[in-house]
Every structure is written in structure tokens, then in C-alpha cells.
From TrEMBL:
This is Oxidoreductase. It comes from Acinetobacter sichuanensis. The lineage of its organism: Bacteria, Pseudomonadati, Pseudomonadota, Gammaproteobacteria, Moraxellales. Pfam families: Phage_P2_GpU (PF06995).
Length: 141
């Protein structure tokens, strides 16, 4: 397992990604000042996003994987993102799925399906861990 997003597992039988790009921003408001540079004030965290670029070879994986991800996106819900090493990234929404099919068989089935997913963070890992632990303790009591 490379990573899990909600109940979707990134692996050879489903879909593998070859690159993970993460972009984090912070917000700063600026105030113009006469005769000098603008003054900047930190106003909070900005957007945190991850782009996963990968491929599916239909002989080894299923194109249904992208259908499953699209169905997850249709819900509009946030899902936990957890790396294969156990790193908890927090809660993320699926913003977009891009798909490119190439190298076709005679029947029109692609030999290679490349994809790009954009995820955007909605909650921090600390909130996710707190919610999970709270649910565990609540179920025990």
C-alpha cells in the first residue's frame, strides 16, 4: 500500500502514483504606505493541496479505480489521507480527477491510463486524530 484516501487504497491492483506534489500557502494582507514599502500582516493559513500524478496499466489494475475516486468526489465529503508509512495527513477533499488514455488495443481499450488527482486539505491531522480517538473512547464507554 502506497497511501489510503478514505477507503481507496493506492496500490498496483488499483492505481499507483509516480509523483506527489504538495503546495502550502500562508495569507498576508498588505497595507500601502506613503514613501516606503507596503506593510504586511499575517492573517492565517492558506490552502494546502496535494497533486498525485500516476498511471494504471489495465493488465494489472482496473479503470474502475478512477470511477471509485469520482464517486468519492461526487459526495463532496472530506476523507482521511494516510501514507503507507503511517503518516496521517489529515482530512482532504477530492477537487479534480484528470484522465488520459493512450496506446489502444483493437477493441478500443487503452493500454495505459494516466491520471492526475488534486486534493485539498480541510482539517489538520491533530483534529483527525482527536476525532478518531474520541470515537474509539466513545464506543468503549
Amino acid at each position: 500500500m502506497m497511501m489510503i484516501f478514505g477507503m481507496f487504497v493506492f496500490s498496483i491492483p488499483t492505481a499507483t502514483y509516480q509523483s506527489l506534489q504538495r503546495s502550502t500557502s500562508w495569507n498576508h494582507a498588505n497595507n500601502s504606505r506613503f514613501g516606503t514599502s507596503p506593510a504586511y500582516q499575517y492573517t492565517g493559513k492558506g490552502e494546502d493541496s496535494i497533486t498525485l500524478d500516476g498511471s494504471i496499466v489495465p493488465e494489472f489494475g482496473s479503470q474502475l479505480s478512477l470511477t471509485a475516486l469520482r464517486l468519492m468526489g461526487d459526495t463532496g465529503k472530506s476523507f482521511p489521507l494516510i501514507g503507507g508509512s503511517g503518516k496521517i495527513y489529515g482530512m482532504w477533499v477530492l477537487e479534480s480527477v484528470d484522465e488520459t488514455q493512450t496506446y489502444f488495443f483493437k477493441n478500443g481499450k487503452p493500454r495505459l491510463v494516466e491520471f492526475s488527482l488534486k486534493l485539498t486539505k480541510t482539517q489538520t491531522a491533530g483534529v483527525l486524530v482527536g476525532n478518531v480517538l474520541g470515537n474509539i473512547v466513545g464506543n468503549i464507554l
